[in-house]
Design goal:
Elements (H helix, E strand, L loop, with lengths): L5 H24 L3 H18 L9 H20 L26 H14 L3 H11 L4 H8 L3 H20 L6
Helix pairs in contact: 1-2, 1-3, 2-3, 3-5, 3-6, 5-7, 6-7
Amino acid sequence: MTASNPQDQLYRQAIAAHGAELARCCAGYERDAALRQELQQELHLALWQSLAGFRGDCSLRTWVYRVAHNVGARHVQQHAGKSTKMLELDEIEHLPDERLDPGHTERRLDLQRVLALVHRLAPLDRELMLLYLEELDAASIADITGLSARNVATKIHRIKALLASQLSAPRSAR
């Protein structure tokens, strides 16, 4: 067996540290299981390829999320219009309630409702919210997306307020 190269070692390190985050990220970008699997494969390949150019100018986590952001954004653009209509922030207030499986726990139902709303956001807003849900701060999200940290914080604040209003509104009002 030959010794692995630094790119392979970095890839294994990235997947060991952030593999679960990447899987959640893919679930945030794609609802369909088959397309989600395809997206995961694309993401893993893109990550491995990109690590040949990793010089340590940012953290490995930031690098991994930059790649995930770029692959996810490309995926959304390629599949735009083929699935559920994406909404701007001001449109989300008027969404009808989606039917939920009553067999899940309350927490699972809440998560499903949040993800259903997040899936309907416009691509950039969706990406920001997914990164926020992975507990990245505004500065890290700004590094990944190329937006200013202030813009990121403002957009996330608006998205959270809209999601909260949707989640707390009586079902008949949605």
